[in-house]
Design a protein that fits this description.
By secondary structure, the protein is of the alpha+beta class. Helix content is about 45%, strand content about 20%. It has two domains: about 70 residues, Winged helix-like DNA-binding domain superfamily/Winged helix DNA-binding domain (Arc Repressor Mutant, subunit A, Orthogonal Bundle), CATH 1.10.10.10; about 170 residues, 2-Layer Sandwich (Beta-Lactamase). It is globular, with a radius of gyration of 20 Å. This is DNA-binding IclR family transcriptional regulator.
Length: about 250
């Protein structure tokens, strides 16, 4: 090895280590990347990245797009949502999500709070909804989503402060970026039992979330409907509340 070359971390020396390093390089803010980006983020040589990505593509774990960039493939999403941690919740919620989708024709999601991010356990896309880049198993920031604000409003105060103090990224001119403003809104959400996001993550898109409660009455998930901002949210709020309450009754 020449003096200017750097040894790879021990955990990337094995085949599995290289595989995990490549998959771990993908994130919500880096869901589509070129091979050079994957190489940089994973710390692996470009030739290794090219070979392993090709193998993952053949299995369905990665997908190569027409412009030469790469993204997570459907096979990996399918495996991920089978995780035992959320399987029971996803199965119990499925008929309620299906009925809510049938009544709204909008994007309908079930989400949980996971490491101060919103993790989407299930997603049903609507024919009349705006396009939102979220898949089952994916995550989005809590402060810019209705599900995130609802779940964070019912989380411990230290979690709320941690999110507020870690830096609130701006996604649109309407994103809440001031910690004090976020904490005040969380108080309102907790009292009102519903949360909205109005063009805070994506322009032209709004969403409303209602709480799903577990056996002890604690909030364990959020049921949401996403819709275009020109459509009134009151009707969707009523429907998402009803379905979240019905699901909570079944889980109790």
């Amino acid at each position: 090895m020449s003096s200017h070359q750097q040894a790879l971390p021990a955990e990337t020396n094995s085949v599995a280590g290289k595989l995990f390093a490549i998959l771990s390089s993908f994130a919500t803010d880096r869901s589509v990347m070129r091979l050079t980006d994957i190489s940089h983020r994973s710390g692996l040589p470009l030739s290794t990245v090219h070979r392993v990505c090709g193998e993952l593509e053949r299995w369905g774990g990665l997908e190569k797009r027409t412009d030469g960039s790469w993204c997570i493939g459907d096979r990996l999403w399918e495996v991920g949502i089978l995780a035992e941690r959320y399987a029971a919740l996803r199965e119990a919620a499925a008929p309620f999500l299906g009925d809510l989708h049938a009544q709204t024709r909008q994007n309908v999601t079930l989400a949980v709070l996971d490491d101060l991010r919103v993790r989407y356990v299930d997603v049903i896309r609507g024919s009349q909804s705006p396009s939102v880049e979220v898949r089952p198993g994916g995550t989005l920031p809590v402060h810019a989503t209705s599900a995130g604000k609802l779940l964070l409003a019912h989380a411990p105060r230290e979690d709320q402060r941690a999110v507020a103090e870690q830096g609130l990224a701006r996604y649109t001119p309407y994103t809440i970026t001031a910690p004090g403003q976020l904490l005040r809104e969380l108080c309102l959400v907790r009292r009102g039992e519903v949360a909205y996001s109005r063009e805070e993550l994506q322009l032209g898109t709004a969403s409303v979330a209602a709480p799903v409660r577990g056996t002890g009455g604690e909030v364990i998930a959020a049921l949401t409907v996403a819709f275009r901002v020109m459509r009134g949210g009151e009707k969707f709020e009523l429907l998402v509340r009803r379905h979240a309450e019905a699901l909570s009754e079944q889980l109790a």
